[in-house]
Amino acid sequence: MPKPEKHVFICQQARPAGHPRGSCSERGCAEVGEAFWFQMQERNLFDRFAITNTGCFGPCGLGPNILVYPEGVMYTGVSKEDVPIIIEEHLLGGQPVERLMAPADVWS
Ligand code: FES
Prior knowledge:
The chain is an alpha+beta fold and 108 residues long. It contains two helices and four strands, in the order E-H-E-E-E-H. It has a four-stranded mixed β-sheet, with helices on one face. Strand 1 (6-11), helix 1 (29-43) and strand 2 form a beta-alpha-beta unit.
């Protein structure tokens, strides 16, 4: 298996309805994940980039959230329409999509 150039982690965490933290699941992460898998298949990119569904990594109320490594870029509020842009600009182009990046204080 070749080492991936980048690894995209997609939060797929769910919580019970009414939970105070909410979740990426209730905010539509399933559609985002499906869009990534579809685009990766369409563009034949699985030998270059890895996609992994994960649990929660913090800012649940801002979701759907994804993380891209090795840069450690977090995107929040991602929609399925954003997925081709992230693939084009960040994965293929090497330039993170600034308008989708998590607020700086998410890491504080
Ligand atoms: S539920 Fe996705 S970051 Fe917490």
